[in-house]
Fold this protein.
Amino acid sequence: MGTRVLFLLLLSTCLGQDTEDWQYEECKLSRLGPPATIIAIDEGSPNGTLLVEDMQINGVAEGPDRTISLSLKDNHDYWVILDSAKQALYLNSTGRILDRDPPSYIQSIVVQVQCTNELIGTVILHEVRIVVRDRNDNAPRFQQPRYYVAISELTPIGTTIFSGFSGTNGATDIDDGPNGQIEYTVQDNPNEPMGKKTFDIPLTMLGSVVLRERLNYEEITRYLVIIQANDRAPYPSDRRTATATLTVDVLDGDDLGPMFLPCTPVGKTRDCSPITYRANILELTDPMKVNPVNVTPPIQAADQDRNIQPPSDRPGILYSILIGKPESYAEYFSLNRSTAELLLLKPIDRELYRRFDLVIKAEQDNGHPLPVLANLQIEVLDENNQAPYFLETSYYGYISEASPVGTTIMTNASLSTPLAIVALDNDVEETKDPQLQFSLDTYSDLFSVSATGIRRYLTLLQPLDREKQDFYAFTMQASDGVQQSIPVTVTIMVLDANDNTPTFANVSYNVDLYTDMMPGETVLQLSAVDHDAGPNGQITYRILAGDQGHFLISNKTGIITVAPGVELTMGRSYALTVEAMDNGPTAHRRSSITTVYIEVLPPNNQSPPRFPRQHYNLEISEAMRTGATLLNLQAVDREGDPISYNIHSGDPHGHFALQQRTGYLVLVEALDRESSDYYTLVVSASDGHPDGISTATVNIVVTDVNDNDPLFDSSLPVNFTVIEEQDHAYVGQVKATDPDLGPSGQVHYRLVNHQNLFSINASGAISTSVSLDREVKSHYDLIVEAWDGGVDPRRSRLTLSVAVLDVDDNSPVFTQQGYTVSLPENSAKDTVILQVQAIDADLSSNLTYQIRAEGSDQDVIQLFHIHPTTGELSVLKVLDYETLAKPEPTYTFIVEVLDSGGIMPPGLAAVTVKIMDMNDFSPVFSRSVYRGMVAPNAVKGTIVATVMANDSDPVNTPAGLVHYKVDQESHPYSASIFDVEEQTGNVVTRVNLNEEPNLKFSLLVVAYDGGEPVKKNTTLVEITVLQPSVIPVFTQEEYRFPPVSEEAPVGTPVGVITAAAVNQTIIYSIMEGNEGGVFTLNETTGLISTAKLLDYETSASYVLKVEADSMRVVSNNLRAPSKSNTARVVIDVSDENDHSPVFTKPLYIGGVAEDAKTFTSVLQVQALDKDTGNYSSMLYHLNIRPPAGKDSKDSKDGFVIDPYTAVLKTAIMFRNMRRTYFKFEVVATDNYGQGHSSKAEIVVSVVNQLDMQVVVLNVPPTVVEKNKERLLSVLERHVQDQIPGAKVVVETIGPHRTGDGLDQEDYSKSDLMVYAIDPLTNRAVSRQELFK
């Protein structure tokens, strides 16, 4: 088919070339340009989108005149639809989306529009290439929802702290081009506003997070940083974004020092208020009885960096006393460096010192001290053998109920003098504050006692109300911390303030009167109530208006009567305005009014009984006892008829009874205010006649008593949870109610336990006060107490269960920071030598152990293996101690443990494996039995014998090191008298002996090595106590011979020592002091002689310890030292002039100016002599030879030297002699010129101003003069860098000269004029060269 089409195309082309007939133009493109049609379309374009409006192909494809036919070829997946009539192409996306992105990857569509020329049968293919343009229809996607990094708070600003978004680990976008390119930015987090300020991504395309601001673990421990990834679509409004959270945990660093506890913050800062620790010490107290001294509060400091990880890196705290007064404090007190315990070193006499003021210091022990200071005051107390006592047995005070909080209690009702409470302690001078502590047995919430002073005062803590309680009585005690006083009674009377207004029961009253009422007859009794006391509560009544002169009122009783001479007229009415006023101070009186309405009626011979009042008001406590009479309701009958009384209504439950004949109202049933707090009784009085009944109203208010406990709401839960590491987190809610009234019904809450961890507010909401740590405690039983505000509050408690929920906030921690294990050589392969164990305080941890490869020796990896789950460390090879490269083979490496499901760093521990050499040999004694002799009175520590054992194991190994001890069980008595020195094998006396002569002791000595296992051997030591007669006695305890010259030849006799014994040959020996073998002792004659040449300068004296023993003892290679057969020999060496003087320099170089005056000092020489006395005293003189060179001058008579001070001075003037020099010798002779001599050379060069350089210094001349030698050494060192051995000489030191003629002097600066002499030429260095 393809061949035929190609043939037709070629044929068509040939024909087109041969003919111009139009039919051959059909199927060709009518447009110019490239043959292929290329268009672009956006991905996601809707179905039917026009792709090509007109293909512009010659010919007609539809209708009767059709010349061509069109079809699509290679239309894969049928994405294109052809409209032949219009030659138009459309998108076919029915039921699908044109998606350029994965997984479809449709980036272009290529189809062929096939055109068939119906006239001649030729076929032409027109390519249509549809490019699918990317549209930003995909947002970036992070590979993880969260990212994590932990950094130290000490990380420098500018550090890249996270690079985890690089590569495919960050966000990706499947769009193409800029739409798929990602850039990262830090966004605002409303819950973490500091994140954007603290971190930044400067290179947005890389996404590396950089620290912008300094971190502070103590302020913020975790940042939740919102990282936004956005694509780079050309128009910002079209860009798509995604976010992820980068959790940045701040690790604690060592940036804060310790702080003394308790710490009271200053304001809202982290700084602590200055703290003063206090201690009291009784004079002359034995330190053993008080140490450590009790300090209040206890001295304690804590590192403010509380969470440095691992814990092994946390520094310890060292304590010390920095300074103190008096200056002798160090004789009396010391502070334990690690525990801060205060120790008393010796008793203190209070007559000398009564107080110590110390400044104590706490600092870190890691070389980064960051010290903090606190004050420590120590009072020296008089011997406390007296109890405090009050001057009075009781105290009475007064206070007004209107007094504000903080008012002082007064001693009289006029409130003019404060109530002073004085308590004394005979242990303290009367003129000084005894510093007692006062305590109240009750009402400590209302009153407080001033803390200091001889006179103490009571002040008010809460407002008072006299109407509730008019006095307070309590007891008070004083304590000096050891003894308490006898309690005294304090009574405080609450004075009334006029704070209540007289109050009538009713706003108005209605009374009916009759015309036949007589003058003076009672109309009505008014009663007003004022709860104040005294004049403030005394009420005076008066009629203000409306009486028309017809009525009077008693100003005290309130009884209204008909005025004298008044006849009431029927039909008249009155409205009396009556005032009730208290009798308080005029300016503060209170009053109220009521109205009495009176109607005058015709006479009635059968008028009903009348109550004196229409309304009665009564307050009754709900605690009132039954049977109590509450009120007298007796009525008056004008006709004198008998009256009967009855409760008409208002008492449905029968709590009250009205006695029928007497009119007394009685309580018959107990009241309960919480059930009913108000009663309105309508009572009646009847005389038995028709219409002979009158009524009155009794209003009864039931007052509250605190008789109900607060009751917790049982519908609320009692089991709560809270997430660890969150402070101020909400825990739960409790609610309690109390049906009592007023303060007695007001419920308050408090936590009984764990107050430092939780808090509860007034509404009962519970939250955490600090962040909890589940790993410290996972569950709390929290007790909440509710109490009412009554005077004697009632309380209820509720126990809540609070479970702390876990978060992954702990790294695994090994049970030990380091492990050390010994591995015996030749242990079998796979032998388990150690099992490490780690604990992750978090729940559900999955621990994996491994040897840390980073930084580990490859030998470790090849020799050891750790099981990933059990932590068992095993050896992979059989090791031979002798073949290992190291002399003491030890391998140290790091093991780590990871929580495979967690995000915290691994825990680390160091493991040290020591390869042990096995113990192959036992110690062997050189003898089976050792013998010794001892004097019967030998002192403790006397050496009796010496045992020795050898061990064939390697030297300097534990297995080859021999120790000695006594077998205590074999010869117990001998072991109590004799011992053996562990290292030397010397058998010594343990006590001062007092034994019988000829007594024998046996001692079993054990020699043991330090190998594993320990190997040992034994030997027997037999000790004989000598007869006193065989122990020689020296004639002197100390011998002191005449001094021996240090020039004495070898063999010079020094002196003879002598000892005596009965029938014994005496042998003398030197025991101590002759370490260098300087002396020899003739063992039979006792003559001490020199064995070596002496040197006074090496040792000026010798002290020898000599011993005399009998031949019997010595012949057995033994000795028996005692008090009598040992003596001390002192040998002094006399000095001789055996050393020549030595000059400090072989050559002295100096200079002298041409214009120097005679006897100008040039330089000073010095010679030293090791001898002493006159032998080291010098005389100096000059030895002047003839000149050798042309520039060298004859110095004869030119210089002189002081024979004693060795100062060289000029003897002539040296004008015009510049650049010449003098060279001569100086001779020093010791013994003031009579002894040995030595020589040195002196070179003096003549200079002038041309050789000198001025050095200007910015300090005054006095400072330069003071530091001349130091300055000269600096200058000389710089000059000698260029001219080896050069000598720098200071000519003058003066003020800095300025001005044209250098005539102005500036004493704030200095001119130092110097020159230098070259030792090779003996001439001055030129100024130009010196300037360089």
